[in-house]
Design a protein that fits this description.
Structural class: alpha/beta
InterPro entries: LysR_HTH_N, LysR_subst-bd, WH-like_DNA-bd_sf, WH_DNA-bd_sf
GO molecular function, one term: DNA binding
Oligomer: single chain
Organism: Pontibacter oryzae
GO cellular component, one term: protein-DNA complex
CATH superfamily of the largest domain: Periplasmic binding protein-like II
Keywords: Activator, DNA-binding, Transcription, Transcription regulation
Largest sheet: 9 strands, mixed
Distance between the termini: 43 Å
Number of helices: 10
Length: 314
């Protein structure tokens, strides 16, 4: 049994296709298949059900693949020890970030981080929470930027800050006259929210469920499903109703639109934003440097806020 065979094993599990796995490993498909066959012969078990498309691991194969991931992660720590000894931060850092954070948080720190660590290549993907967790489990990402808690035993959470929710209200709406609002003031039928699959949608609905009401009026004839907070802003500005937004999304808003932003009364509903990594994560010093840079670049009122009423995303 070799580390190379384990890498091929994990690649097939990740891609669920022998040809794609071989391409990822920069070998021919026959070479990869031969090495996996040798591994199966040595172990005396069948690791994959090749009769199914896409190919899937057998029950015993699932257990062996899980252990193979641990072995490979531990072997990579040898290289990390060398890097740490040299006191250098270099290599590739693959970051997954949810769409309701990416356009507002990334610009705050990414330039200064790259300037400070010029030998680091950063690769960023905007993904939904479930996609980030899946890619972390398959070692396709090093770290995620998302909202916690996740209650996932395979994931380690490193809290960064607590971000407040604010209401964004059309000027003609009755609530526009109130400088601060309560969850009980919200009418679900007048609220614009993101599509299913966004954790921010669940957070918003949970705020409303703490006291929001639903009326028989639907507030109009427009039914618009959006995956973008910026689109929701424009709908509120040009149509009717209101939406809820994360605090960072309104900090750089033009002065003429600031009147549409209404904070909640204390205690404000918050969301916990964290760096998340796999339990056996690598690149510890690099991720710690990323965490430090993000915190240092946050607006003071966000950085100094303590955990109060964090919205459950379930």
């Amino acid at each position: 049994m070799t580390l190379v065979q384990l890498e091929y094993l994990v690649a097939v599990d990740t891609h669920r296709h022998f040809a794609n796995a071989a391409e990822h490993c920069f070998v021919t498909q026959p070479t990869l298949s031969m090495q996996l066959q040798k591994l199966e012969e040595e172990l005396g078990v069948q690791l994959f059900d090749r009769s199914r498309v896409p190919v899937r691991p057998t029950e015993i194969g699932k257990e062996i693949i899980a252990q193979a991931r641990v072995v490979l992660a531990e072997s990579k720590k040898l290289q990390e020890i060398v890097h740490n000894q040299k006191q250098e931060l270099s290599g590739e850092l693959r970051i997954g970030v949810i769409p309701t954070l990416a356009p507002y948080l990334m610009p705050l720190f990414i330039t200064s981080f790259l300037d400070k660590y010029p030998q680091v290549r950063v690769v960023v993907q905007e993904l939904l929470t479930d996609q980030i967790v899946q890619k972390l489990n398959h070692e396709l990402l090093d770290v995620g930027l998302l909202v916690t808690p996740l209650d996932n035993k395979g994931i380690k959470e490193l809290p960064l800050f607590y971000e407040a929710f604010v209401a964004y209200i059309n000027p003609k709406h009755p609530l526009a006259k109130q400088p601060r609002i309560q969850a009980g003031h919200l009418d679900m039928d007048e609220l614009w929210v993101l599509n299913e699959g966004h954790c921010f949608r669940s957070q918003v609905l949970n705020i409303c469920n703490r006291g929001g009401r639903s009326s028989s009026e639907n507030g109009g004839h427009l039914d618009y499903k959006s995956g973008s907070l910026e689109t929701l802003k424009r709908i509120v500005e040009t149509q009717h109703g209101l939406t809820l937004l994360p605090e960072l999304s309104v900090l750089e808003m033009p002065e003429e639109k600031q009147s549409l932003v209404h904070p909640f009364e204390e205690p404000q509903p918050l969301r916990e934003v964290s760096l998340v990594v796999h339990r056996s994560f690598l690149k510890k010093k690099l991720i710690e440097a990323l965490k430090e840079e993000i915190i240092n670049c946050l607006p003071a009122k966000v950085r100094e806020r303590q955990k109060m009423q964090v919205v459950d995303i379930k």
